[in-house]
Amino acid sequence: MAVQKNGDGDLTAFKTSTGRILDYGQALQAVKAGEIAGVNAFKGRDGETYIRGDADGDPTNNLDQLPTFE
């Protein structure tokens, strides 16, 4: 998996291991549908729903640590 970030460092798009590119909204729907492994959706303090990596104790696969794509 790889990610795109905006100028603030926020995740804006995801590229799956099969090469499928999803904007954040599409990725969120896919996560909620169980179509993407290793991540989950959670509700933030602001009431919005976000994507985060599953807690597995390995910081190298955190979403912010994934490679980026153009």
Distance between the termini: 13 Å
Secondary-structure element series: EEEHEE
Low-pLDDT residue spans: none
Helix content: 10-25%
Strand portion: 25-35%
| Major sheet characteristics | 3 strands, antiparallel
**Rg calc:** 12 Å
Offer a few descriptive terms:
globular, about 70 residues, 1 helix, alpha+beta, single chain, 5 strands, about 15% helix
Task: Set down the secondary structure blueprint.
Layout: E1 2-5, E2 11-15, E3 21-23, H1 24-32, E4 39-43, E5 49-53
Antiparallel strand pairs: 1-2, 2-3, 4-5
Verbal overview:
There is one protein chain. The chain is α+β, with helices and mostly antiparallel strands. It has 1 helix and 5 strands. The protein has one helix at residues 24-32, and strands at 2-5, 11-15, 21-23, 39-43, 49-53. The strands form 2 sheets. It has a 3-stranded antiparallel sheet. A two-stranded antiparallel sheet has the order 4-5. The longest helix is centred in the middle third of the chain and has 9 residues, at 24-32. The protein is globular, with a radius of gyration of 12 Å. 6% of the residues are buried.
Describe, in short, the structure shown.
The protein has one helix at residues 24-32; strands at 2-5, 11-15, 21-23, 39-43, 49-53. It is an alpha+beta fold and 70 residues long.
